[in-house]
Design brief:
Layout (H helix, E strand, L loop, with lengths): L2 H26 L2 E4 L3 E7 L5 E7 L2 H27 L1
Antiparallel strand pairs: 1-2, 2-3
Helix pairs in contact: 1-2
Length: about 90
């Protein structure tokens, strides 16, 4: 697998992580804070309707995408190399 394809998978992983964090905090009416990555707060307003706000540092998901892409790329290279040795 080439690095560009691995990086694309890493970007999808980062976006899905943000989406899952947002949905879980919305459904549980809670809050979550991961320093330098994302802060999500879910509360109810005066009427009782749910309100959710999300603040995230763009460098956090970019860093997560780079790390995930690099790990996937290295794992692909390692498995290809192990397949050649057998």
């Amino acid at each position: 697998m080439n690095f560009a394809k691995s990086l694309g998978i890493g970007i999808v992983v980062a976006l899905l992580t943000l989406l899952v964090i947002f949905i879980v905090t919305f459904l549980t009416n809670g809050s979550l804070s991961i320093p330098a990555f994302v802060v999500v707060e879910s509360t109810t307003n005066e009427v009782g309707a749910p309100e959710t706000s999300m603040f995230f540092n763009p460098l956090g998901p970019i860093g997560l995408a780079l790390v995930a892409g690099t790990l996937i790329w290295l794992a692909g290279k390692g498995s290809k190399r192990a397949g050649r040795k057998q």
